[in-house]
Write a structure and sequence with these properties.
Rossmann fold, 8-stranded mixed beta sheet, elongated, Dihydrodipicolinate Reductase, domain 2, 23% strand, binds nicotinamide-adenine-dinucleotide, alpha/beta
């Protein structure tokens, strides 16, 4: 059993269920194999079942109760995740739940409590916590070379119209519930605390639904850097995905490359406060000697911007980790408790921006 592939059932075969989950699973048959699929769209389901050489089942319950299925992947619409995850857990399956991990904290709590009761794993699919540019930014910050971090800005900017269900509040679409969980997850790691204060603003401009396509939020709190996230489809000139400001230097860059520079003040004269007039009416100035470093993505990186495809490297790492959890009891890299904190912050963002989770 310990080295047997995990048999999977996929619920929802769209951009995520098919193009991310099934696409990855078919490349790692030693770890995971799709046993059954279900989608409301029968043609889509039949095509997927034929392609994957697996069963197409009659409804959700048939998928959740399929005796061969050990792990159910929930890749249905945003507002259905908690209900579907709980139904699969009740049926005695492990669950991999795509983001958002429920819409409100009560959803996340329900899933976590039920998984504990059933003795099953509930894994939130926050695969971007493995993204190599994010991990590099974190490594540089943690090294201390940039000094105390004052401000971090991460941008997911693009310019486009969109008219699918992810723009509709009825389906719990909108920038926050759709792409928001990814930069929020990064922001929370870099903020370094569990309960930030939050300021947020959201508006709708180019999309056809009634949900926000322009969102900005700021996490702040005593003793933490201010972390600013911009997630927008109304930004023709996309800026760097990462900007970090520290007391000894800074970092900027994108998923494919980063650069940072810093000053070593230790070899420079002290600058005690002086109230004397400056010589020749000059402004304070001193020569700074900058040290510089750069980083290039070893893997494929990923295009920046809202709606960019997630990098397969991060998905592979996620699945390898999940296999280790399911087969050897290794701890989850992305714990449901950590993502529950993010859902709590999503509630604060909605309260600040005056937007509902769903309408
Ligand atoms: N983690 C990521 O990087 C990532 C990327 C894209 C989407 N997602 C998430 O995946 C989920 C699906 O999004 P998508 O872009 O794939 O949407 P999509 O519209 O492309 O696909 C959704 C599919 O689910 C099916 N479906 C909906 N309800 C169902 C039900 N009750 N039973 C069976 N099938 C059902 C639909 O028929 C459709 O085929 C969303 O929650 C989204 O946030 C995550």
């Amino acid at each position: 059993m310990a080295d047997q592939p995990v048999k999977v059932g996929i619920l929802g075969l769209g951009r995520s269920g098919w193009a991310i989950h099934a696409a990855m699973i078919r490349t790692i048959p030693d770890l995971f194999q799709v046993a059954a699929v279900y989608d409301l769209d029968t043609a889509r389901m039949q095509q997927a079942a034929a392609d994957l050489n697996c069963r197409a089942v009659a409804n959700e319950a048939a998928l959740f109760n399929d005796p061969e299925v050990e792990l159910v992947i929930i890749a249905s619409y945003n507002y259905m995740h908690a209900t579907h995850a709980c139904q699969a857990l009740e049926a005695g399956k492990h669950v991999l739940c795509d983001k958002p991990f429920g819409l409100v904290v009560a959803d996340a709590d329900r899933m976590i409590a039920l998984a504990a009761k059933m003795g099953k794993i509930i894994a939130p699919f926050q695969q971007r916590r493995y993204e190599e540019d994010f991990l590099k930014v974190k490594e540089v910050i943690d090294s201390g070379i940039l000094g105390e971090i004052v401000h971090i800005r991460t941008c997911w900017q693009g310019f486009k119209r969109r008219w699918d269900w992810q723009t509709s509040r009825a389906y719990a679409g909108g920038a926050l519930n759709n792409n928001g969980p990814h930069p929020l997850d990064h922001a929370m790691v870099l903020f370094g605390g569990e309960n930030p204060d939050v300021w947020a603003q959201a508006s709708r401009h180019l999309c056809s639904g009634d949900a926000e396509d322009h969102l900005k939020f700021i996490l702040y709190g005593q003793g933490h850097p201010t972390v600013e996230v911009e997630l927008t489809d109304v930004w023709a000139y996309a800026q760097d995905r990462w900007v970090v400001a520290g007391t000894r230097g800074g970092l900027k860059g994108n998923p494919k490359s980063l650069e940072w520079k810093w000053v070593d003040f230790s070899g420079m004269p002290e600058r005690p406060l002086s109230m004397q007039s400056t010589p020749d009416r000059s402004y304070n100035s001193e020569k700074l000697e900058w040290h510089t470093a750069t980083w290039q993505a070893a893997g494929e990186g990923t295009a920046g911007g809202a709606g960019a495809a997630p990098p397969p490297g991060a998905v592979l790492l996620f699945y390898r980790g999940l296999f280790a959890t399911l087969r050897t009891g290794a701890p989850l890299y992305v714990t449901p408790q950590s993502v529950r904190q993010r859902v709590a912050v999503m509630e604060k963002i909605r309260a600040s921006a005056g937007i509902p989770a769903q309408a």
